[in-house]
Amino acid sequence: MVDHLFLRACRREPVSRTPIWMMRQAGRYLPAYRAVRERASFLDLCRTPELACEVTLQPIDEFGFDAAILFSDILITLPPMGIEVTFPESGPKIGNPVRDQAAIDKLVVPDPDLALPYTLEAIKQIKAALHDRVPLIGFAGAPLTMLTYAVEGGGSKDYARTKKLLYGAPASAHALLDKLAQTCATFLEAQIAAGVDCVQIFDSWGGIVSPGDFREYPLRYAKQVIAQIKSSRAYAAKPVPIIYFVNGCAPYLTDYASSGADVLGVDWRVGIDVVRRSVGDGVALQGNLDPGALFASPTEIRARVSDILERAGKTGHIFNLGHGVLPETDPEHVRAMVTAVRELSSSE
Ligand code: CP3
After folding, report:
1. For the chain, which domains are there?
2. How far apart are CA 61 and CA 133, in angstroms?
3. Residues in contact with ligand 1 (CB, 6 Å cut-off)
4. Cα(294) to centroid(ligand 1), Å
5. Which atom, in ligand 1's list, is nearest to the CA of 46?
6. What residues are paired with 243 via a beta bridge?
7. How far is the C-alpha of 327 from the C-alpha of 33, rounded, in Å?
8. What single-letter DSSP state applies at residue 288?
9. Model pLDDT for residues 233-276, shown as the tens digit of each residue
10. Rounded to two decimals, what is the model's pTM?
11. For residues 286 and 307, is the Cβ–Cβ distance under 8 A?
12. Given pLDDT bands bounded at 50, 70 and 90, which one contains residue 2?
């Protein structure tokens, strides 16, 4: 494996400049992506390796990020488990939300080789197309975040149904989280075996609970996923860095540090220097520009980049947005951010 800047930063080794990559998730901000989307539905894109490969490479070609992220979606594992998902304009929708023990009992932990072959094939094609230009990041949704989607059936304001299950029927919640953790870990192991160079576990809704419940639910099952990956054959053959991202991590920093991940994702609601002081030097940090800051002028973007680079220090930092890029973002402002990170963090 080539010793890439991004992988060195994950391992907290010295780097000549801070690596940068970005998730576009909610962002249909790239004209090249929108052009492909006109020809295919979102799910068809995810399930057609050639198209997934094409759109994965777009931001690398356009901006020269230091890592590529697999084009897929965290919800891709739900249909093989027995949960129907569609992606209308308004955001993802679940056809048969999981609300009781009987529904949980029916869910299966899929074998990724049989149930998600298109994702594994996409990884192989992307790796071939990248020629080791940059590392490829694979990913999956963390158990609590997946539970929230499965139970709410879509977005939510107060997460009432999630909390009804967690606190009203904890035994059922734990049974569901265990199945989701096995699904997440097994899928990430298959992605490692297929060739990804790093895996990221997205806990987008991990920040909706009290500190005690953070330990009991999101963190506990993220730890289970990370432990299962680390004891797998795929990981023994290729021990890739593991990134854990909790959106809204500020209330849980000391516990966050104990996840077992090599890299912790940091959203923009907390200073990355504050996070560093709480978590110590044992992990790398990824973050944490507010995606909304890309609506500011290039001069202002540069000032904010500079502030984050200063707070983060050079070792063990990967520059990233604190969450996915917003759809109306101007690609030229993304370019301004990339240039600023390159220029301001370079020691050459
Ligand atoms: O950066 C990338 O392109 C990597 C691929 C990726 C997508 N989703 C593609 C996507 C990744 C890493 C994700 C992760 C994901 N998906 C998360 C975790 C990260 C986070 O944002 O917290 C979550 C919660 C989802 C679920 C999801 N998928 C939502 C809420 C939406 C709707 C967003 C919106 O604003 O409409 C999606 C759809 C989605 N996933 C799109 C993309 C490119 C847009 C779909 C389209 O093209 O119409």
Report:
1. 5-346 (3.20.20.210)
2. 11
3. 23-26, 28, 37, 42, 69, 71-75, 87, 91-92, 139, 202, 204, 247, 323-324
4. 18
5. 9
6. 200, 263
7. 11
8. E
9. 999 999 999 999 999 999 999 999 999 999 999 999 999 999 99
10. 0.97
11. no
12. low
